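Explain this protein:
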Amino acid sequence: MVYIHPTHERIDPINTLKKRQLDLSRHLSVEAKARLPNPIKAIWKAAQVKPGTINMGNGDPHHTLYPVCEMNFVVPSINESDPVQAWKAGTGDQQIVASYKDEPCALSLRTALAYGAGGGLKHVRDALAELTDRIHAPPKHTVSLSLGNADALTKCFRLLGDPSDSFLCEEFTFSAMTNAALPLGIKWVPIRMDKDGLIPSEMEKILSSWDETLQGKRPHVLYTIPCSQNPTGSTLPAERRRQIYDLAHEYDIIILEDDPYFFLQYDLGIQPTTIESHGYTRAMADVLPRSFLSMDYDGRVMRLDSFSKILAPGMRLGWVTCNDFFSEKLDMLTDSSSQHPHGLGQAFISELLGSEGWGVDGFMKWVSSLCREYERRRNLFMDVFRREVEGSGLASAETPKSGMFVWIKINLERHPRYRKSLKSDKPGVPATNTADLMADLFRKLLDCGLVMMPASTFAIVDQTGLVSTDSPITDRVNFFRATFVGTDEIIEDGLKIFAHGLEEFFCY
């Protein structure tokens, strides 16, 4: 575990010390409470304390028998003024970051390719702790590695959830993850959203009206994607984040802050003078949204970060930042399940963020350049959308502030087959044929050669009876999630197909 020291105070330090002593053990699942440390890993950790200790206890192949002694990674030179554009055009310089088994480097392959602890190798965790500290400056927290956010999140569900528990989430969310909790017996309670994301007053309404005698244990976990919420593309404003954290404090909620799109922010207004004086990390930290982690004086936030969106998804490497109690329990689970993240990825990140690679500030320069490129693609998407689609009045979309997605609203009330009946007396029963029409439109677009993700894929249907039924979610699935991260040709051609298919669909 790596302790992160805050570099500057954002909260009242006296109150922080008082509130930091919370006993969060009640949030652990029965499984997590019963889990014992992996005894072999415990001995392995003890052997790391004294340098030079001869370890004849573990079944590790000796490094002299590894069939590799060197790995070279060719990456863009960060000395370019706009490294992403130079890399795309093939005009920029390249640099090599190398890992060695028998020569000096940031992380020796002797270590990277050996067995390790569940939380990852200390050198990598130290580097990511530094990055997290410089961006979020959280109170006392630790960093553990993961195989990406999907791995981390499913482990968090096991860490915190018991059968019949209810967890909170946005009413539209990444269903691949919420589905992972269902076999554990966890039930989802959806919170209403608007164009700015989760609505705090709706969250408070659910929590304040919860009747444990009828509904079981009150939800004690919130799963949220605060930046470029998947699928809606919304980003929570700062005031809403504060309100949500205050509610979490009041009702003793653990926040699972799943934030893979955090670094992909647009229209930031980064100050060149700050870059010149303090570097890219400080300049980006000044304008990036404030995370739940940065305001976490209670230790109730488990933040999930990933390299998937800013380097490559196939790396399957991310990190979890949380209090040391949860971090220890998470590492225990990893030690007895998936084991530590792969050594090749840890070696690459060590060298990339090390003194012979980009370093933390060079990494943030790459991220800043990446933001400019994705912002250009977002702007192109919205320009083509306005030109090809919006004029028909059949669909509309908000310009996202971050991430990769545009949430396109289909104005089904203009469709000749749209039907709206009188409100049903049965809670949750749809009053329109929205779901059927959207299914027809999806098939129409597919026939035209275009795939967009229908909102129904992400809709969380309330099973508790507590969520307002004035507008069942099945009546509000008239959206598609579209991505703008493809090439210019994909954006142009895709939206032209969309416009044509949409107009044909509304003719019958």
Residues 5-19 have pLDDT under 50 and may be disordered.
